[in-house]
Every structure is written in structure tokens, then in C-alpha cells.
Amino acid sequence: MAITEEAPPGAEPTAAGTGPDPTAAGAGPAGSTPRTAAAVPGRAAGSTAGEGWHLTSPGALTVLLLVVVVVQGPLRRALGAPVMQSWMTVFVAVVVQALPFLVLGVLLSAALAVFVPPSFFARALPRRPALAVPVAGVAGAMLPGCECASVPVAGALVRRGVTPAAALAFLLSAPAINPIVLTATAVAFPHDPEMVLARFTASLLVACAMGWLWQRLGRPGWLRPPAPGAYEGRSRGAAFWGSVRHDVMHAGGFLVVGAMAAATLKAVAPASWLRTAAGNPVVAVLALAVLAVLLSICSEADAFVAASLSQFSLTARLAFLVVGPMIDLKLFAMQAGTFGRAFAVRFAPATFALAVLVSVLAGAVLL
Amino acid sequence: MNRQAQAVVLFLVGAALLHAGLSGLYLRYVKAGLQPMLLASGTVLVVTALATLWYERRGAGTAAVGAGAPGQAPAPPGSPRPADHRPTPDDHHHGPDDHHHGPDGHHREPRISWLLVLPLFALILVAPPALGSYSAVRTGTALQPPYGYAALPAGSPLRLSVVDYAGRAAYDRGRSLGGRPVQVTGFVALDRTGAPYLVRMALNCCAADAQPVKIGLTGRIPPVLQPDSWLQVTGIYTPRRTRDPVNGGPIPFLAVTQAKPVPTPRDPYDETWNQ
């Protein structure tokens, strides 16, 4: 069976604590001055401006915008230290760089969800999940872009009834084996063309292995059903733009979390640690695998960073290139947002371990 | 966050991307080639915001059947704000059925969506500068052997990028320069001992992957060097070189004959590795 049953509506898809809240939602006209909604305890609208008040979200947003505009002078001075500036530059850079790819992925995902009938995937993919996994993994080569695009698309595939094992294989392979990324790898390693082959092979192997692993061991309960049947009964325009809005707000928030983590690492951790790690071959592989997770670099650019880590062995750098597009801080946050935390905490460590293992094997055979 | 607030955030983020893409601000953070993608995604976000307000105004709660073709087009700019056309959300918030109204029903996005205002503020209010000497000193030089040495134009002094000079000096022992005076532009960084370097950050995709390429300065160095100030340095090749204390990479030197302060270039990064 390539098509899963539509999961019954399970847990509330929003994070805990933002559940139904009719009073605050319906009462105030948009943009009204902030008002307290005493009937809804425990819901501070927005952690940034909340401070224990209960606001309607447009009201809270208005207050937040006003406050920040008023205090911008002191704010700028407070952020003047070199470490803070460097942090902010990297933070803004990661967000600005990733947003276009996120939007691309979100548009594709909305188009999949609204305009492609589920029967298409039933015909396009083999009926047996064991075969659907490698087909979906190879199909990942068709999504040009980096990992930010693949998360919403994989979410849409699950929503459209594609068996999760195949969607996950696609999720993992797409950012690593598409032509743009492989070309960048070839350019970054002009003297080691076998690096391209090793990256392609290792990434595809890990993606398929994770798909099969999920098929054997995964439980549907771990995977939060991504709002099944969300788009029935509405005009296609409304459904399309509703999906775009929902995915951008959702994944965008998680993207910001990942960008903050990556900026912190880049601005604070001393690069000389790496030099120590490069000496021991085992430590070197693990160090670069962990670095790939922490740095959260776009998969189109990671080959150039790997090339510059020339004190490390080629196998260690291969691990960097295989792990990075599959699991990093930014991706973990986005996966938790799309598929649920229960999924992410199981999927991410397994992916990491498998990616390191396969990289070492591929490095031993191919490099 | 309800949908009107979401529309406002989407609109502002889209507008910020358009502003950064059109004003050249984006060059501080990402590669030049990303501009079309930035403008396109900014436009999509603005259209999404307007479409959200448009469908909200038409009353998404009644859109059960036949909200047909006219709804496909996004709202024109300036469509009135949906102040009081919202259906009572009570209709939709009873029990597990919530899901069937899906993303466009009345559930809100989780609080994490609020974080989207952070990059917005950072970009619009603070607009942090491109990476400078702080990152340059903490990161090892990324100098790689060049693929080849292109023929140099005539003229004196010879204008070269920091990366080009460093590559020719470190891996070709300056032979292709033929003793000609060269002119390079970069920013000043001082290491822990106070030794001055002329640096350009080389960028592949965004500032998160930017890495410095460093040239040591020797000869007639200006008496006062301010880190992060931009200099146009004229000088000649010198065989002196050192190793970067961070990663052991080669740092060639340039014997300065003249140094002149210049404004920050439009694109502060070196993107020659981006081809």
C-alpha cells in the first residue's frame, strides 16, 4: 500500500497552550488597542511582548512595533559590541538566505496540496513502500534548492497520502543530491572529483536506509498527522494562499530559532578548537559531523566550507557534507514544527548516527 | 497570533526583503546572485499577506461551497482592512473537528511564529554591518591554491582583489606579478599582537559561510590603523609570509608604499569563488 489511510484528527496541531480561544479571537476589532481578556487565563499573546498581559494578537503586535520603534536608539547602542554585531549579521544572513528557498518550498508544497490529486502519487510511486522509498529518494534530485525547501514539500507529501517512509527518504535526499548542490561540490573540490560521487552515494544510501528503517520501526503515533483534509470544501485560491501563509508562519518561526543557534555558534565558539580535533581521525569525523549540525549552513554552500577545513581528512569532510543537509539545528527545529516533536527527537539522532556511519564506509571505499 | 496579525507580519517581512533586495542592503548578508530570489520571495510574501486579508474579509467561515473563481486573484493593494467582518469563531472550535478547517480555519499559529518579528527588527532597525575584523581574527584564512593564473592587464598600479593577490603571492611566489606595484582594497584587522592585516571576507552563499582571506601588511603602514576601516593599499610583492595562528593557512605579505582610506564598497565580500 503506497497510500496510507487518512489519520484521524489527533492532537491539536498547534503548540500546547495556543488552543481554542474564542474570546480573544473574535471580540476585538483588528488593530484595536490592547485589551485584557480576563476570561482566558494563561494565554499571554506573544512571549516577546507578553509580560503577563492578555492581548489580542493584532493589539500585541501593534504595541510591540511601537515599543521597538521608540526604543530603537538605546537598542542600537546596546547591540554595538563586535560580538553582538557579528551575531546579528550571521543571524540576519541565515534568515535572509533561507527565506527565498523556504518560500519556494512552501509554494511547491501548497501547489502539491491543492492542485495535485492524491491519486497522482498513488500512480507515480510503487505500491510497495519498500520500493517507493528508493524511488522517492532518487526523486529528491529533482528539487533544486537547499534543505529549507524540502521540509514543507515532504510535509505536503505526507498530507497527500504518500507513505511516510518514502516522504522521509525524499526529505533527506533532496537537499543533498540535487544538481545544484553536486555542482557546487565539484567546484569546491577541483582536485578530488570522487568527492561528488561519494557525497551522492552516501546521501542517497542514508536517505533510503532511513526510509526503510522508518517503515520497519516507525510508529504512526510518532508522526503528527499534518492537518489531514485541510483543503477540502474551499476554493482553490483560498486553500492555496492559506497553505502558503500557514507554512511560512510556522516554518519561518522555527527557521528563526535555528538561525539564532547557528549565529551563536559562529560568533562565540573559538575556531581553534577545530585544529585540536583534526589530529585524531576518529575525533575528526565526529567533530565535523557535530559541526555540520551546529553550523546549519545551506547545503548549496557547505561544500565550500568543507573545502576550507583542509586540516581534516577527506572522510571527515564527507561526513560534514552528508550530515549537514540531513540534520542540523535549523532543520531539527523545522522538522519538529512540521512533523511534531515526538518524531524529531527520534528521527534526528538516528539520521545523525546513520549518516556518520555511512560516510565513514563511503569514505573508506571511495575516497 | 490570529490571521490579521499574521498578515501584518507577512507583509512586513516581505516588504523588508524587497527593501533589502532593492537597496543593496542584502549584499551585507548574502551573495549578489540571490537578488532575484529575494525580490521574488518578498513579492510572494506581500501577496500572501494581501490574499490572507482578502479571504478573511470575504469570510472564510462561509466558504464551504462555491467560493469560486473570482477568489483566485489576490487582493489588489489597498483593499480595505477587514475590521469587523469576522465570523464568530465559536462555530469552529468545538472538539476534534477543528482540524477540518485546517490552516485556514480559526486556529492560530503557534507562538513560535512571533519570532519572525526578530529578523524584521534586525533588518529594518539595526541593519548590522557586514562581517568585519572580529570574525576575521577568529577564523583562519581560507586561501586555496588558485585554478590558474589569468593574464594580468597592463597599467600601473595593477588592481587586484585581496584573494587574487594572496593566491599569486602564496602559491606562485609572486612570479606572475613581475615586481609590478599592485593595488588591493580590504578592511583592516589587528591580531592579538597588534599586527595589521588587510582582509576581505570571501563568501559563497551567505555571511554564515563567509571566511577571511588575509594579507599581512609590512613597509610603510599608516601610523594609526582602525580595525574595520577600509583601505586601498598600494604596494609590491614581498617573499615574506607567515602562517595563520588559527588554522595554519598561509598568509602572504604586501610591502606597502601607500595606503588611503576608502568608503566601504557596495559589495563588501569577495565573491570570486561563486562562479
From TrEMBL, chain B:
Record keywords: Membrane, Transmembrane, Transmembrane helix
Keyword Membrane: yes
InterPro entries: DUF1980, DUF1980_C
Region (Disordered): 64-106
Record-linked Pfam families: DUF1980_C (PF21537)
Signal sequence, renumbered to the chain: none
TM segment ranges: 33-55, 112-131
Domain of life per record: Bacteria
Domain DUF1980: 178-269
Compositional bias (Basic and acidic residues): 82-106
Protein name per UniProt: TIGR03943 family protein
Source species: Streptomyces tropicalis
